[in-house]
Amino acid sequence: MSSSLLLTLLTLCALTTPLVAMPAPTCRFHGYLVKESLKLLRQLGGRDFPGSCLPYNHNISFPDSAFPQASANRLQCHQALKVIYALLEGVELILANSTCPSTWDESTLDTFRNLQDQLLDQGHCFSDRGSSELFSAYFNNMTTVLEQEVGSECGWAVLKKDLVTVLDSALHKYHKCLK
Ligand SMILES: *[C@@H]1O[C@H](CO)[C@@H](O)[C@H](O)[C@H]1NC(C)=O
Ligand SMILES: *[C@@H]1O[C@H](CO)[C@@H](O)[C@H](O)[C@H]1NC(C)=O
Ligand SMILES: *[C@@H]1O[C@H](CO)[C@@H](O)[C@H](O)[C@H]1NC(C)=O
């Protein structure tokens, strides 16, 4: 590889992952990045969960059972991280393909998405087709609501609420797995 091509590639990498100086040597989920994601989500804006959205909330039910009961061993940790990965991946697909609500702060959203790219990149070994399938009904329902003009506000509210809830509880329950 010519050195100028290498330089171009390195520059590209530096541009796409501005918060990481070097590629992560191992595949892992960094707890501090998850914590930072949660903080950004809470700063995104939008109202507290609107009461009028409760019916949608019931129709979009996050598959909690995908999570292992405990974080006592490596197997359970691996399963927990696979579920978090599938959730973040699905959310990123939706965000990449939609217009987010105008009530959300654009620069916070950009920073959040940048962070998600890093998390997905660094945790690539937790990518798992089985987990994605578990979430397919969830994301299909979510997409359906987001595509309705009347329901889209609720779709976004549910998406944000579920993400905050799951990341918050994962940070507590699986803190040993999220080094
Ligand atoms: C929830 O799902 C039920 C059954 O599919 C449907 O009849 C109802 O209209 C849905 N509610 C909303 C708010 O989408
Ligand atoms: C998706 O929507 C259908 C119909 O309203 C409902 O029966 C099902 O429980 C929902 N699944 C998820 C994971 O939200
Ligand atoms: C992206 O949005 C288009 C138009 O709304 C839709 O047809 C397509 O299926 C979406 N792709 C994904 C990956 O969600």
List keywords for this structure.
single chain; mainly alpha; Growth Hormone, Chain: A; binds 2-acetamido-2-deoxy-beta-D-glucopyranose; signal; cytokine activity; antiviral defense; disulfide bond; Interferon_alpha/beta/delta
Can you describe this structure?
- The structure is a single chain.
- By secondary structure, the chain is mostly helical.
- The protein has a single domain, classed as Growth Hormone, Chain: A (Up-down Bundle), CATH 1.20.1250.10.
- The protein is 63% helix and 0% strand.
- The chain contains eight helices and no strands.
- The relative contact order is 0.21.
- About 6% of the residues have low confidence.
- The structure holds 2-acetamido-2-deoxy-beta-D-glucopyranose (3 copies).
Question: What is this entry, summarized?
Answer:
The chain has about 180 residues and is mainly α. It has helices at about 5-15, 30-45, 55-60, 75-95, 105-120, 130-135, 135-145, 150-175.
Order of helices and strands: HHHHHHHH
Helix content: 55-70%
SS-based structural class? mainly alpha
What top-tier CATH class fits best?
Mainly Alpha
Taken together, the total number of domains comes to 1
> Can you tell me the CATH topology?
Growth Hormone, Chain: A
Low-confidence stretches: 9-18
**Total beta strands:** 0
How is the biggest beta sheet arranged?
A: none
Question: What is the secondary structure topology, with strand pairs?
Answer:
Elements: H1 3-16, H2 31-43, H3 54-59, H4 74-96, H5 106-122, H6 129-134, H7 136-147, H8 152-173
Helix pairs in contact: 2-5, 2-8, 4-5, 4-8, 7-8
Bound molecules: 2-acetamido-2-deoxy-beta-D-glucopyranose (NAG) (3 copies).
